[in-house]
Amino acid sequence: MPTCEFMCHNGDIVAYRDARIHAFSAVVKYGLGVFEGLRAYWNAQQQQLYVFRLAEHLERLRFGMKVLRCDRIFEAAFLEDCLMRTLQANAIRENAHIRMIAYIDGDDELTVTGPVGLSIGVVKRPSAGTLHSGVRVAVSSWQRIADNAMPPRVKCTANYVNNRAAEITARLDGHDGVLMLGSDGKLSEAAGACVFLVRRGELVTPDASSDILESITRDTVIQTARAVHGLVVHERRVDRSELLAADEAFWCGSGQEVVPIVAVDRIAVGNGQPGPITRRIQEHYFRLVRGEIEDHPEWRTPVWPAA
Length: 307
Ligand SMILES: Cc1ncc(COP(=O)(O)O)c(C=O)c1O
What we know:
Elements: E1 6-9, E2 12-15, H1 26-30, E3 33-43, E4 48-52, H2 54-67, H3 76-89, E5 96-104, E6 116-124, H4 130-133, E7 135-143, H5 160-172, E8 177-181, E9 187-190, E10 194-199, E11 202-206, H6 216-227, E12 233-236, H7 242-245, E13 248-253, E14 257-264, E15 267-268, H8 276-289, E16 300-302
Parallel strand pairs: 7-8, 7-14, 11-12
Antiparallel strand pairs: 1-2, 1-6, 3-4, 3-5, 4-16, 5-6, 8-9, 10-11, 10-13, 13-14, 14-15
Bound molecules: pyridoxal-5'-phosphate.
């Protein structure tokens, strides 16, 4: 069972096996779902579990529901309550990954707008080993979907056909992951993460019009790079060849966290080792999400009553 014992299904806590939809639900037929992947971090000293940047994830989910023209858009307070009850029902007291999906559940034609379903699950999930070693990636021959076709800004389940095609091809070719280029040939993003380069001590990342998901972790990195690390950050178009010119590179996402990219198309990035700026950003990120530093308390939502 990939997910924990209990899920929240349309507002009710149910056993994992009972979170069901019909085979002809619109989300199955047409991919009419939007989802979020969030992380919760256990702080052993404080005996507290923190969901990281919950408000921003809920806002993005609600935005996606609006774009899908769902006939009911769940209130943020309802979504938060469902998520908290899911974590509590599963007695989560360790690092975990939360998945929430809102979807059109009606069995009808393409223009169906409801009823709207909501399912939330959680899985206990430590960080990946690649946090330390870094990942060796390929640039995909699959082009990133474009905003005027299937907007990557919307975290729609159907979009992930594109990400999966790129990721699975790269893995079969022996890489750890993939980077995609947009229709203009410029760097877009990874299959489940946004990308940063370090060039001459400054950060560079594809801008919001580069057919990326407007990643919450990307925003965290940009804000903390400027405020905490005193780094200049450029959000702009990024050429493919800049990946090879970079001194360091990393990708970031709620699920992926902050992972060094050490090779692109089997060419070393910098000296082929995780770089010092990447390490600084990584280290600060983990202290921040666990609540080991006090910055941005509004980014950490506690799950359990204060000890
Ligand atoms: C395609 C894509 N890009 C970027 C990200 C990172 O986004 P976030 O930092 O909001 O999790 C994700 C993960 O959700 C993703 O699926």
